[in-house]
Specification:
By secondary structure, this protein is mainly α. The chain contains twelve helices and no strands. Helix 1 packs antiparallel against helix 9, helix 2 (38-60) packs antiparallel against helix 8 (186-204) and helix 5 (110-120) crosses helix 7 (157-183).
């Protein structure tokens, strides 16, 4: 196996790990959000993650790679707007004003937005493998998430729009940040994006500071959920996403998002005893097949 192939397989392994962590992070988030307001917790999570990322960066990143010039600061601020602040805010607002079913279906469009923006920006080329992979994976997600329960009406349209804005914001982050992350330390850049995101989310949630103390107290389950959410669900996943963006096309990174519902189903089966239905198994096969052929060929970036 050549060095290039080794790097590609390492990136695939990192993407699989990210989806595995995100798949189990849902349960941890539910425990946390039962005690803290969503935007306030996002601010606390990003602040803690920024502190830890800077500590690791000063230890692991060579001094000559720790940029602090105006261009670096401006770009990390812009990328944090799309990848952290806007994405988090639109996601939470979407859940507030629309149904869970609508949000689940619409959030699965993130990879489609990513591929569309990548082609429009001439960062990637459309191929038959990529197109078929996306169509099959989308079909699998829609089957798994009961697309027939989706309804866009007067009561949910505002939340539906917010959810679509979340998809577009995250897709733009993948496209815009790739070249920048290839030229800079992903670790150092992610630390600064966390910091900018923490500041922006902190300003948005400053009126909720009186709810910072959980009403049920700091239980053992809450501590475990918080540690998992920050260390694995935030620091490790954001860093790995930034790192893989330097090695594979943004649409491939986004395509692996389709594995999250599969992992959620497996988690429910293993930890809650929820036996997968025939519909679930069919959807999982579609998703695995779509992700496989969609990421089979790495296209050259123009």
């Amino acid at each position: 196996m050549s060095e290039k192939q080794s790097r590609a397989w390492l990136a695939i392994a990192a993407l699989l790990l990210v989806q595995l962590i995100f798949g189990f992070n849902y349960a941890a988030s539910k425990v946390i959000l039962a005690e803290f307001p969503p935007v306030l917790w996002a601010a606390v999570r990003m602040t803690t993650a920024a502190i830890l990322m800077f500590a690791f960066s000063f230890w692991l990143v060579p001094k000559e790679m720790r940029r602090s010039d105006r261009e670096f600061m401006l770009k990390t601020f812009i990328y944090s707007l799309f990848g952290i602040a806007f994405s988090q805010a639109f996601f939470m607002l979407g859940l507030r004003y629309t149904t869970t079913s609508n949000a689940a279906v619409l959030n699965s469009l993130t990879p489609i937005f990513t591929l569309f923006f990548a082609i429009m920006a001439k960062k990637e080329r459309f191929t038959v493998f990529r197109g078929v992979g996306f169509i099959v994976a989308v079909a699998g997600v829609l089957v798994l998430k009961n697309v027939e329960s989706f309804s866009m009406n007067g009561d949910t349209w505002k939340g539906d729009v917010y959810t679509l804005m979340n998809c577009a914001s995250l897709a733009l982050f993948f496209i815009l940040s790739r070249d920048f992350l290839r030229k800079n330390s992903p670790f150092w850049a992610t630390a600064w994006m966390f910091l900018w995101g923490a500041i922006l989310l902190g300003v948005a949630s400053i009126h909720q500071l009186d709810q910072l103390v959980p009403h049920s107290g700091m239980t053992e389950h809450l501590w475990i959920a918080i540690l998992y959410n920050i260390l694995l669900g935030t620091i490790l996943t954001y860093f790995l996403n930034s790192w893989t963006l330097t090695r594979v096309n943004p649409s491939v990174v986004a395509l692996f998002f389709y594995l999250q519902p599969v992992i959620a189903v497996l988690n429910g089966w293993l930890s809650l005893g929820e036996t997968p239905t025939t519909r679930m198994l069919f959807a999982m096969c579609c998703i695995f097949f779509g992700v496989g052929i969609g990421s089979m060929k790495r296209n050259p970036t123009p």
